[in-house]
Design a protein that fits this description.
Helices cover 34% and strands 14% of the residues. By secondary structure, it is of the alpha/beta class. The chain has a single domain, classed as Alpha/Beta hydrolase fold, catalytic domain (Rossmann fold). An 8-stranded mixed sheet has the order 1-2-4-3-5-6-7-8, with helices on both faces.
């Protein structure tokens, strides 16, 4: 039986979440949370698979993206507000708990849900970005950098130099992405490979280069990487980002201090006791978790942690969907079997 992917809207007085759903309405929800600069369709390879396994698979457009609310101020994109969006989405479904899966900036949202609202999580799984209990901000991750690749004198912010560019040149940052959105999409959504291992990531040079793509007006014209995006995918990302712009998505990077304050208020529940899955991307050199210390806080603060490595770049769920789906399904079967339908 194939399950259609349906379009839905959850509205409150403070926020509107557009979301895709697939699977029986009364099944256990598994909610997929995308990152920068993505959409609910970033989980297009996961939704029908997990619906077919008997769950209700859901993927929202996050705050500032797609058909969800675009809020006007940078401070509107602090994690506290985004976690609240996800709790409202869960309540609109009429359920107490979900399985939560996050990628990129979606991962700090899911970690925040686990930390702030453990009673709303059956279990959590995250791709690429590990748990930072103290809150996701450059100040908390820079000390974990691999200084053999990023000597401090040359790379004070290591591969997260681009986050400092947002802080120092916000208008230039989002303007550079908006100059030619289609070119930006094609330049960003690319597969990873072993050739970058041990080399500084391009994101370490953004301030020195005067922009993400250098001093020019925007992204270079590159062919679409068909191992990550089809023409239809490229069109959908481009249309959404042209309509809304990058100011909202980029504002997620501008709330480090607020995110740390939010985490501090939940210090009593920094240790996560629910089942946790983390998928390392072997060829993600920005969220590099295999040779640096970036995953150490997660290992120290998760009581039931499963780790696996996918041979992919950063866009793991789109580049290697079969491997991601298999790892998620294996973890669910091992750790949360009571949530699966019994024939």
């Amino acid at each position: 039986m194939t399950h259609p992917i349906l379009e839905n809207v959850a509205k409150s007085t403070r926020h509107t979440s557009f979301y895709l759903s697939c699977g029986a309405a009364d099944a256990t929800p598994i909610i997929f949370v995308h990152g920068w600069p993505e959409l609910s369709i970033s989980w297009r390879h996961q939704l029908p698979v997990f619906a077919g396994l008997g769950l209700r698979a859901i993927a929202p457009d996050m705050r500032g993206y797609g058909r969800s609310s675009v809020h006007p101020n940078q401070k509107d994109y602090a994690q506290e507000h985004i976690v609240a969006d996800m709790i409202e989405l869960l309540e609109s479904l009429g359920v107490e708990k979900a399985i939560w899966v996050g990628h990129d900036w979606g991962a700090p949202v899911v970690w925040g849900l686990a930390q702030q609202h453990p009673d709303r999580c059956h279990g959590v799984a995250n791709l690429c970005v590990p748990y930072i209990p103290e809150g996701f901000s450059p100040e908390k991750i820079i000390p974990l950098a691999n200084r053999s690749i990023y000597p401090e004198a040359q790379f004070p912010a290591a591969q997260w130099d681009y986050m400092m560019f947002y802080r120092e040149n916000f208008a230039a940052a989002h303007g550079g992405f908006e100059n030619n959105v289609r070119a930006t999409v094609k330049a960003l959504f690319r597969a990873g490979g072993p050739e970058g291992k041990g080399q500084p990531a391009m994101t370490a040079f953004v301030r020195a280069n005067g922009g993400w793509f250098g001093p020019g007006p925007g992204a270079p014209e590159l062919p679409r990487d068909e191992s990550v995006l089809t023409q239809e995918d490229e069109n959908r990302y481009t249309a959404a980002l042209e309509r809304n712009g990058f100011a909202g998505p980029d504002s997620w990077y501008m709330n480090g201090e607020a995110n740390v304050d939010f985490a501090e208020r939940a210090r009593a529940t920094w240790r996560l006791t629910m089942p946790v899955l983390f998928l390392h991307a072997a060829y993600d050199y920005v969220c590099e978790t295999l040779d640096s210390r970036l995953a150490e806080p997660m290992r120290a603060h998760c009581a039931n942690l499963t780790e696996a490595t996918v041979q992919s770049g950063h866009w793991m769920a789109q580049e290697k969907p079969t491997q991601v789906n298999a790892a998620l399904a294996k973890w669910l079967a091992n750790q949360l079997p009571e949530l699966w339908p019994i024939a």
